[in-house]
Amino acid sequence: MIITNQKSDNIGAIASSLCLIHCVATPLLFIAQTCSITCCSATPIWWKSIDYLFLIISFFAIYRSTKTTTSNWIKPALWFSWILLFVIILNEKIAWFNFPESLLYAPALLLIALHLYNRKYCQCKTTNCCVNEK
C-alpha cells in the first residue's frame, strides 16, 4: 500500500502503457500465430485475462491519484478515461457494438497523459500549482 500511496501516478502511467503495448502486440502475435496454426481461436486464457488485470491496477491507481491531486478537472478526466477504457474492453469481450480496434488506444493514451500530467503539475505543495485553478 505504501507504493500505491506514494507512486499512484507512476503505477497508473505504467499500467496504462503496458495495457497499450498489450493491445498493440495482440494483433501482431496472432498474425505470427496464423503462420503456424490454421485456427486463431486458441488464445490462451491468461492472455485474455491481462486486460482485466490492467483495469484493476488502473482503477486503484486512479482512485489514489484522485485522492491526492490538487486539480479539480483531473479527477473527472481520469475517471472518464478509465470508464471509457472499461466499456471498450468489455464491449470487445461481449461484442455489443462493432467498434474499430484502434478506438481502444485513445483512452489508454489519455490515461497515460493524465497520470503524467498529474504527477508533474498537480502534486505540488507550493502556491504555484494546480490547486490555484478556478
TrEMBL record:
This protein's record includes keyword Transmembrane helix: yes
Coiled coil residues, start to end: none
Recorded GO CC terms: membrane
InterPro entries found in the cross-reference section: Mercury-R_MerC (IPR004891)
Domain of life: Bacteria
One Gene Ontology molecular-function label: mercury ion transmembrane transporter activity
Keywords: Membrane, Transmembrane, Transmembrane helix
Residues annotated as transmembrane: 12-33, 45-65, 77-96, 102-118
UniProt name for this protein: MerC mercury resistance protein
